[in-house]
From TrEMBL:
GO terms for molecular function: DNA binding. Residues 44-92 form the HTH merR-type domain. This is HTH merR-type domain-containing protein. GO terms for biological process: regulation of DNA-templated transcription.
Length: 205
């Protein structure tokens, strides 16, 4: 079996089925032995590759006519993602990490391992924390002495946009709201929304 470096040098390519076979043949070498969920240890499938690509975790496939082609870089990204998930990192935390790394960095992560820092894989709640801090209303300080009456400037009016998601559920978005920019930020926001909705479930009597 050729090394990953050799595959990169000769510009190896596969169709989706070929990429899946290549990944499954090499994956046991890179998965940690002492921990990792059994689900992560399961074989890579074509559906899983499409899922990771849809989440922005892998580069989009190359196109040759109507056929999708996958390069050695796709293989590196897939192996890195599976290894990090086996080490306990969730998809929302990884985000587009593998896409931001060079081929050399991906190789180093596979061969030598890597300790992910908070800067590389921000917490799934970091985006929500930032939103809370950005839009938190400041508390007025208690004056030490009664000041002279001053005419207060009228507060700036912020407009809200209203969207009906489904009958019975509306979404209100303020005009200064910062939309999520990465898959991990979007995942965190959707998970927070799901948690809030679950609190509205009717209690059983």
């Amino acid at each position: 079996m050729d090394s990953l470096e050799t595959l990169l040098q000769r510009g190896a390519e596969w169709d989706l089925a070929g990429l899946v076979r290549e990944a499954n043949a090499r994956l046991p070498r890179y998965l940690p032995q002492e921990f990792g969920s059994q689900r992560v240890r399961e074989a890579v499938t074509a559906r899983l590759v499409r899922h990771y690509t849809g989440l922005g975790m892998l580069d989009e496939p190359l196109r040759v006519g109507r056929e999708a082609r996958y390069s050695a870089r796709h293989l590196l990204q897939l192996l890195v993602v599976r290894r990090l998930m086996a080490e306990g990192h969730g998809a929302s935390a990884l985000g587009d990490l593998a896409r931001r790394k060079s081929d050399a960095e991906l190789l180093a992560m596979l061969e030598g391992g890597v300790a992910l820092t908070a800067k590389e894989t921000p917490s799934a709640l970091s985006y929500l924390t930032e939103l809370r801090q950005q839009y938190r209303m400041p508390t007025a300080p208690i004056p030490s002495a009664a000041p002279l009456p001053v005419e207060a400037a009228p507060p700036a009016e912020l407009r809200w946009r209203r969207f009906e998601i489904v009958p019975g559920l509306e979404l209100h978005v303020r005009e200064d709201f910062r939309l999520p920019k990465t898959p991990s930020e979007l995942d965190a926001l959707l998970r927070h929304l799901r948690e809030r909705l679950e609190t509205q479930k009717p209690r059983r009597r």
